[in-house]
Description:
The complex is a heterodimer.
Chain A: E1 2-9, E2 12-21, H1 23-38, E3 43-47, E4 51-54, H2 56-71, E5 75-79, H3 83-91, E6 100-101, H4 104-109
Parallel strand pairs in A: 2-3, 2-4, 3-5, 5-6
Antiparallel strand pairs in A: 1-2
Helix pairs in contact in A: 1-2
Chain B: E1 12-14, H1 22-35, H2 42-61, E2 71-77, E3 81-88, H3 111-118, E4 121-127, E5 130-138
Antiparallel strand pairs in B: 1-2, 2-3, 3-5, 4-5
Helix pairs in contact in B: 1-2, 2-3
Amino acid sequence: xxxxxxxxxxxxxxxxxxxxxxxAAATTLKTAIDGTVADGHHLVVVDLGETEFLDxxxxxxxxxxxxxxxxxxxxxxxxxxxxxxxTVLELTTMDRVLTPHVTVDDAFAAG
Amino acid sequence: xxxxRGDAPGVLRIEGCVAPECLDxxxxxxxxxxxxxxxxxxxxxxxxxxxxxxxxxNVVEHAPKxxxxxxxxxxxxxxxxxxxxxxxxxxxxxxxxxAGLPEDLAESGRGLALARRTAHxxxxxxxxxxxxxxxxxxx
Lengths: 111, 139
């Protein structure tokens, strides 16, 4: 997995994990989310448009990131999920908690 | 480690699958498997890959520390569907394959529930001195 971070404003961030988001990569993503939130970017959008594959470890990292962001008064939202990621979210019923948004802008605009 | 289907032609074998990095090798091998099974639908491919990654991930995550632990993944496709066997030399496992999903904000505990929902058959048995996981996704 390759991870890119963009910081549009002092309180927002976009993280883009590319490739496979499985066990080895999950720790990297969780560490990046923790650091991003600790730096004051409490509203984090994870752009999954180029994430080829998500497993339960990657999903766990997203849930952990959601907890950290909420604890800081912010949120973690998903954007641009593909079929495989959406399937994992739906089969685990986590699409209720981590609602996928069509675009990054939609995710930022969501309440 | 004896296999039920491992001697069939075209079976892919990944040895030494004891660390998270092995998941990449398994996923690369699954991609190779589809070259030999053009009849596999996109849904079957996706569901099989999810199930196998979760089973291998479970084996890797709970692998005993230290030397002596071995795990081997076998992948194949036949007239019935795509199948996987994961053999490991760890101690007997006491795992409830029918366990449901954890609470919403739990960071772990969804893997086998996900495997159950994506495989048509998922089994765990103790065979001689090793654990044998099997995954089947029918066409």
